[in-house]
Every structure is written in C-alpha cells, then in structure tokens.
Amino acid sequence: MRSTAPQGDDTAEIFLDRLHYGKLASGATLRIPAAEGYGVTRRSRNLRAEDDRLLSPPRLTGLRRLEAERIDPAARRLGGLLARVAPEQESRRAVFLRARFRPEDGEGGQGRLYQQSAIWIVSSAEWRRHPAALLAMAGADLEARPDLVTQDQASRFGDGPLSYLVRRVDPRDAWSAQEEALEKARWAAPTLEFLARGAERGEDATFTFGADDFASEADFLAAMGLALQFLPMSYPRWREISVVSGLRCAPQGLCLRYLPSLRAAASADARSASVAA
C-alpha cells in the first residue's frame, strides 16, 4: 500500500510493518469459524517471531491483560489507539496499536467477545520527525479488522511494509504556521505546559482530555500531533511520550490521553489528579 501524496524535496517516505493479533474471519460480516483459535494472524516479513511477545497488546499498554473494560465505552466500536516508542530496552521502534473487542458471530452480533488488535511498527526516528502525520494516518487507516481465512498464510506472514509519503515539517515552521491557532486553542497552552513541566521534573504523569475538550478522536490526534511537532529536537523525554485514545490505561512516562465518554467535571478531576501524580 502506498499513499498518493506528491513526491518532492519536502516529502519523506515512511515504511510501516504490521502485526495482527486475533482470529481469522469469514464472510461479509467477518464471522469467526468455530475452529479458529486466538493468535498472531499477520506479521510483516521484516518482523521476527520473537516480536509477537515483545509487541503484544498487554506489553504495549503496560497491562497484565487487556480486557474489554479497558476500552472507553464511547470508543468500543472502533477500539482504542496507542502510540509510543516500543517498551524494549534502547528500542529504535515506535508502535501504533488499535485494539477492540468484537463478537465472534460477526460485526453487530451478540456472540462472545474476543480481542482483535492491529499494530503498525515504524522507526522511532520517523515518529520523532513526523508525529502529526503518523497520528493522522493511524487515526484514519489503522483498523482492528480480522484477517480472512481465505488468505493464505504465506501472504499474511510475508508481506512487505505499508508505504506513506508525508510532508517534512520543521518544529519552528509548525509553530510559525499555527501560532495564531495555537494561541486561540484552549488545549494548546496546558498541553505545552504539561510537556515542559514533564521535562523539568522527570516524573510519570498523564494529561487526560474528554468529550468537552475534543469532539472526536481525529480532533484529539490532530491537536496532539501539532503539539508534538512543535517540540524541539532537543526535548529530553521524547521516547517516554505516549498518545492514548479510548483506552483506560496510561503507560509510564508522559501520557496524553483522550477518553471520549469523559465529560467536563470528570475530565477536570482526572486531569488534575493525573498531572499531579
């Protein structure tokens, strides 16, 4: 898969490997056949079998087990999203996880739920250079959709990476181009202050937004992408930043989180408590 953005000196090509956890499905409703078990259903050829454990949803979220209750009620159809540097020692990879729980009898069914997850893997350097573009791409295109029983194993475990063309953005240009919008956006100053304070203190902290802050996940990801794009290359805690949407978890480090079912009062309480933590 390749994006259609024009090529030029101001663009960069990004490659994304894929790793899927879940069950193989069939039919128009993506029903799970009775004999299908849970496991890895797709792995790009650049990944290794050992990555199945290193990049598993519980490990990426920092949870012992990812359960349905961890998905925000307002995000259960699409699933939760997590972006971060992989939790491996000295990792050079960043990951984007989309996870949801869907019924085994197909979309819209009432059957037993199981976890379906899709993960993109990209170099951490590309995540640092292009946070706004990568968050927008993940929000729009990363789906926790089952692979099909009709797809042969060789293709599911041997495909190449996805390819996207994105525009290069300098942090200084990001600020100058959006300065007026940032000054008017009520999320901008608190977010940048949170990141600045995080650099000074070095403690774990979470900044939580709700439905009164952003009308949709896309709006949240666009805002956080712009905030991260603005950070200078010298920002000391970049590898510890995570962006979370629709997941009731907060990885260690500096977490920017969006819970769409959270309203104003609860959002303010969660924000003050998590930032102070």
Describe the structure in your own words.
The structure is a single chain. This protein is α+β, with helices and mostly antiparallel strands. The protein has nine helices and nine strands. Strands 1, 2, 3, 4, 5, 6, 7, 8 and 9 form a nine-stranded mixed beta sheet that branches. A hairpin with a 7-residue loop joins strand 3 (80-85) and strand 4 (93-103). Helix 4 (131-141) runs antiparallel to helix 8 (217-230).
Number of strands: 9
Share in helix: 25-40%
Largest sheet: 9 strands, mixed
Distance between the termini: 42 Å
Strand residues, percent: 15-25%
> What order do the SSEs take from the amino end to the carboxyl end, as H and E?
EEHHEEEHHHEHHEHEEH
How would the global form be characterised?
globular
Average predicted confidence as pLDDT = 89
The class by helix and strand makeup works out as: alpha+beta
Contiguous low-pLDDT stretches (5 residues minimum) are none
What is the assembly state of the chains in this entry? single chain
Number of helices: 9
Please tell me how large the radius of gyration is.
19 Å
